[in-house]
Amino acid sequence: MILATAHDPGPHGRFGRFGGQYVAETLMPALAELEAAWRAARVDDGFGDEVAALLRDYVGRPSLLYRAARLGAAVGARVYLKREDLNHTGAHKINNCIGQALLARRMGKRRLIAETGAGQHGVATATVAALLGLPCVIYMGAEDVARQSLNVFRMKLLGATVVPVESGTRTLKDAMNEALRDWVTHVADTFYLIGSVAGPPPYPWMVRELQAVIGAEARAQLLAAEGRLPDAAVACVGGGSNAAGLFAGFVDDAAVELHGVEAAGHGVATGEHAATLGAGREGVLHGSKSYVLTHTDPARLGQIAAAHSVSAGLDYPGVGPEHAAWKESGRVRYQARTDDEALAALGQLARTEGILCALETAHALAALPSIAGELAGRGGEPLIVVCLSGRGDKDMNTVAQRLGVTL
Amino acid sequence: MTAVAPAPTAPRLRAGLAACRAEGRAALVVYLTAGDPGGDVAETAAIVRAAAAAGADVVELGVPFSDPSADGAAIQAAMERALAAGAGLHHALDAVAAVRAAGCEVPVVLFGYYNPPFVMGVEAFAARCAAVGVDAVLTVDLPIDELDELRLPLAAHGVGVIPLVAPTSTAARIARVRAVDPPFVYYISLTGVTGAALDGARLAPERVREIRDATGAPVAVGFGIKTPADAAAVGALADGVVVGSAIVARVGQAPPGGAAAAVATLVSELRAALAPR
Question: Which CATH number fits domain B25-161+231-273: 3.20.20.70, 1.10.150.130, 3.40.50.150, 3.30.450.20?
Answer without folding.
Answer: 3.20.20.70
